[in-house]
Design brief:
The protein has 238 residues and is of the alpha+beta class. It is 20% helix and 35% strand.
């Protein structure tokens, strides 16, 4: 069940973010509806949110709820409710997160002992998937790239294998190619040309590449994580 949840999370990478969304395909009419329901978020929904028209959209807790359901775990809506009401086998502060295990991660609101502002799923390989915000959409990134404060292991996943190699998502070495030798390829924050440029990687540079997402690949290089179009990666190992 846990592996199914991981696959579900990865399948959502590159989709969009609209506050309160549950995986609906984004349209101007849907954004108007959400803006009316959540007026404090209206500027983001009606402005930046337009970039997601035509794409399935989520908010953070609805994404984790969908991932959890795929893995046989029942979660309520809302990050705070998930933290307080989910049947956890274990949970704790982020510095105690177990290595090699898939768990849900949270960011607690500053100054509060109970309110969680954000949530995602850590895959057990040092990366996480979360609906980061209107500007970012659903991303997979290194755990260190977000200020997580807590983690929780669902009771249903308590007996998962703790072997880090088996639990991790495989990354393989690739090199940048198919560009002039004096040029670079953009690593972007999203699996889309609309994503912000995270880094510019030179020709023939070795990178660690992960899962394919609609013609793009998750890439780790220079301590950064992002996406590169698959056509610019050579996996031959020569």
């Amino acid at each position: 069940m846990m592996q199914t949840a991981i696959e579900k999370a990865l399948s959502l990478v590159g989709q969009g973010y609209i506050y309160g969304a549950k995986g609906q395909r984004c349209t101007p009419a849907f954004r108007e509806q959400q803006a009316a329901q959540y007026p404090d978020q209206a500027d983001y929904i009606l402005g930046t949110g337009a970039k997601w028209d035509g794409v399935p959209v989520w908010d953070c807790a609805q994404l984790t709820r969908a991932v959890a359901k795929e893995g046989g775990v029942t979660m309520p809506s809302g990050a705070t409710s998930q933290w307080n009401k989910t049947d956890w086998a274990e949970k704790g502060e982020i510095q105690t997160i177990p290595k090699g295990k898939t768990v849900f991660v949270f960011r607690r609101q500053a100054g509060s002992s109970t309110v969680m502002q954000h949530t995602g799923v850590a895959l057990g390989d040092g990366t996480c998937v979360h609906a980061r915000g209107t500007a970012y959409g659903v991303v997979r990134q290194d755990m260190s790239q977000y200020a997580w404060t807590h983690w929780g292991l669902p009771a249903e996943w308590a007996d998962q294998d703790t072997n880090e190699e088996e639990a991790s998502i495989q990354m393989v070495e690739a090199k940048i190619y198919n560009i002039p030798q004096n040029e670079t390829v953009n690593m972007r924050s999203l699996a889309s040309k609309s994503g912000a440029v995270v880094a510019k990687i030179p020709y023939d540079t070795a990178v660690q590449a992960g899962d394919a997402v609609s013609g793009w690949r998750l890439v780790m290089w220079g301590g950064k994580t992002g996406y590169i179009m698959e056509k610019y990666l050579d996996f031959s190992g020569e």
